[in-house]
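Objective 1b of the project was to move from sequence-level analysis to a structural picture of ligand recognition. The entry below was assembled by the postdoctoral researcher (A.K.) and checked by the PI before modelling. It contains the amino acid sequence of the target and the SMILES of the bound compound, pyridoxal-5'-phosphate.
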Amino acid sequence: MAPLIAPHVPNPLTDPVVSPAAAAVTAFHRQLPHYAATPLRSLPALAAEIGVGQLYLKDESDRFGLPSFKILGASWAVHCALARAIGLPQSVSLAKLADAVRAWNADTESIAKGEKKELRILGTTEGNWGRAVARMAQYVGQVPCRLYVPTFMLPATQEILRLEGAEVHVLQGKNYDDCVAYVQAEAEREGSILILDVGFDGYEDVPQWVVEGYETMLVETDEQVLEATGGHVASHVVVPVGVGSIAQAVTQHYKGKSPNLYKKISKVITGSTRTIGAGGATTTNAPTTSHAEALWDGKHGIKPEQQTVVMAVEADTAACLRASLAVGRRVTVATADTIMCGLNCGTLSKTAWPILQRGIDYSVAVSDRQAHAAVQHLLHGSSNPRNSINKMKTTRRTTNSDNLGGDSMADDAGCSGGVAAGPCGAATLAGLRQVCSDARDVMKLDGDSIVVLFCTEGPRPYEVPFV
Ligand SMILES: Cc1ncc(COP(=O)(O)O)c(C=O)c1O
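Corresponding predicted holo structure:
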């Protein structure tokens, strides 16, 4: 399939969403147990091999003790949805909200009389999302959480969801898209709170909160890239796409007009308190020209030609973004099994689509074989296995449905010095290689490029594709 190049257009829709939420969301995440910024890892050998200046990987293999980034969005969405359900502001602290939720559900008399509804969360999942929602339901006052899951989910995965406190129902013969339709109807019928990361007609607030939640990862990334590069921003970022919510967050972050990042660059470069305010107004107490100002266009925000290039990677068995970009509207594609389970979605989120359509610079689909090779390359730090200090013991398993973290590959990575990633996370490296081979010049990937791969999951067992 030929790659698709979307027009390089800054998206004016996104700015009002991103900037105000970022501070509230990062403050919220700091209230959750075990908050810590995930590491940004430098991959110099792979950078040299691929022919880019610097290559970094944002490693989401341990986010609040879970093996993927999803809890960032799930936590904020659950918090906002419960706060709204009981009439509290989003700014309520996690502890206060949990108390209020507990008190609400403990009022069984009013619930029995039908004066109010018991707070209950419903969702669907292929693994990571449901685990994150269930964990969050426990944090916010042990709200009952029920998850409907596709047939192909392994019993072991279901068990992990149960261990997080969720009630799990397998929908026989159903895929992910079917589960979304089913749980939507169930939530409506019983008046429960539907927590999904995919938007559709009449269901837009929750997925928008999910996207806002991912902002914490991006704020951390910017700070880490600034520090690692001595004050530069990423020139290119690569993000995986399932329903498109994480790609939406990445796109609106890098194509938006938020001045926050540029304030920080200014500080790093000048070492002063000189700042660039909203709309580009500069307050000065150190007369100097900064990289930030070179990038900043007072009228439009970040100059379009200086904006970070956003590249999207899908599984070639579920490439709904590519299909939608090709025809200029959101379309559903038939999906097939893939080791990139989290990317196995046939329809983009309604809320993500307009932003991806206008902001994604390049879209590529990769095969299971490419993703598996990328898992190995990350583990070895190179595509040359001799560069690895450690022998890799990839275990052949007969699972393809669990992206909840595994043990076999984590053991390998623990002593190799490489990065242990699951196939969805490693897909971004596979995608970068593909873009470099198809469109290096068009995407201006060269020795000056500073590339960030969003590696969205840690290692887990999967069936190794034939190579
Ligand atoms: C590990 C992992 N990476 C990427 C994605 C894709 O995220 P989104 O569905 O927001 O596009 C998912 C979704 O489940 C996932 O689990």
